[in-house]
Specification:
single chain, alpha/beta, 434 Repressor (Amino-terminal Domain), Rossmann fold, 3 domains, six-stranded parallel β-sheet, five-stranded mixed β-sheet, 14 helices, elongated, Peripla_BP_I
């Protein structure tokens, strides 16, 4: 069986250098790293992961548990996190829960707890107590707040501020009758301090209207449906055909905004000449659709760096108080607005 000593002798380096390379230590120069890896590949060297785990108590793997990888936002998050985690010397095991509590519990208990040093987790059903029970002490960074009990670091996206910014931009461009997709109407005072990302976005929409002297009304809120392009397309077509009078649409995410663009095109409504459309997220499809989508775009690389760094800090024993981490984001103006 090939050992690190064999690789060191063949590559003309120390056994410690081989160990550093195989453990992705950033202190090793690229030429030395490449030479060692070429020798290891030629000798068909393979790391005994089980033995290494028993010695160190580490797998050098992190879990990433998301709700729905069909959503382009989730796949872009997964891509950014797996790329950055690899730079930090970790492999990423990606799972999806389909918004099911049983799936969340099973994945945390049977996959993450046994195969990963920690997990970046987007919960939809489990509460903090249930998450802690399933992880059995493993570190975690949550991708959305679960409750007021901040037992884990939490990654946040500026949901209310983002929708406030996109709505305010529409109003500054002369729009006065915007719609919001997708949520039922709720009184602003009842949702302004919500921890739920959906209601934060609704609150951002209403705050922008109120700031500009417009009273939010129930007719401006399209029926609460799925956050995907098919539902959004069907909903906006129905709104046009029923004669609803609007000049813009603020969408809860980019995925639904792309569906709105398609639905308006189906009805012969011109964007942005007749109706302006804005999204939220910053997925790549928004830049390539026709017309290209104005959106409040999250910096996915910044999101990944902050989430992975926070998790690795916890894996390495950081016991500071859990805190909220906000990813960078900005308004990106494209062709879908006047």
């Amino acid at each position: 069986m090939v050992t690190m000593r064999d690789i060191a002798r063949e590559a003309g380096v120390s056994q410690a250098t081989v160990s550093y390379v195989l453990h992705n230590d950033p202190s090793i120069s690229k030429p030395t790293r490449d030479k060692v890896l070429r020798v290891a590949q030629r000798l068909n060297y393979s790391i005994n992961v089980s033995a290494r785990t028993l010695r160190s108590g580490r797998t050098n793997a992190i879990g990433l548990v998301l709700q729905d990888l069909h959503n382009p936002y989730s796949t872009q998050v997964a891509d950014a996190i797996s790329v950055y985690a690899r730079r930090r010397g970790y492999q990423t095991i990606i799972q999806q829960t389909f918004y099911e509590g049983d799936a969340e519990a099973e994945i945390l208990q049977h996959i993450v707890s046994s195969m990963c040093d920690g997990v970046i987790f987007s919960p939809s059903k489990l509460n903090v107590r249930e998450i802690m029970a399933q992880l059995n002490g493993k570190p975690s960074v949550l991708l959305s707040p679960v409750c007021e009990n901040h037992s884990y670091d939490t990654m946040l996206v500026a949901c209310e501020q983002g929708i406030f910014t996109t709505t305010s931009y529409l109003l500054s461009r002369g729009c006065r009758r915007p719609l919001f997709y997708c949520s039922r109407y709720a009184d602003f005072d009842d949702i302004r301090d919500s921890a739920d990302s959906k209601w934060q976005r609704v609150a951002g929409f209403q705050r922008a209207l109120l700031r500009n002297g417009i009273t939010p009304e129930p007719w401006q809120f399209l029926p609460e449906r799925h956050w995907n392009r098919r539902s959004a397309r069907e909903t906006i077509v129905e709104a046009v055909r029923t004669g609803l009078d609007f000049d813009s649409v603020v969408c809860i995410n980019d995925e639904s905004a792309i569906g709105v663009l398609r639905g308006l095109a189906d009805c012969g409504v011109r964007v942005p000449q007749d109706v302006s459309v804005v999204g939220f997220d910053g997925i790549e499809e928004g830049e390539c659709c026709v017309p290209s989508l104005t959106t409040f775009a999250m910096d996915f690389d910044d999101f990944a760096r902050k989430a992975v760094d926070a998790l690795i800090d916890r894996i390495n024993g950081d016991d500071a108080a859990p805190h909220a981490i906000i990813a960078n984001s900005r308004l990106v103006v494209r062709e879908s607005t006047r």
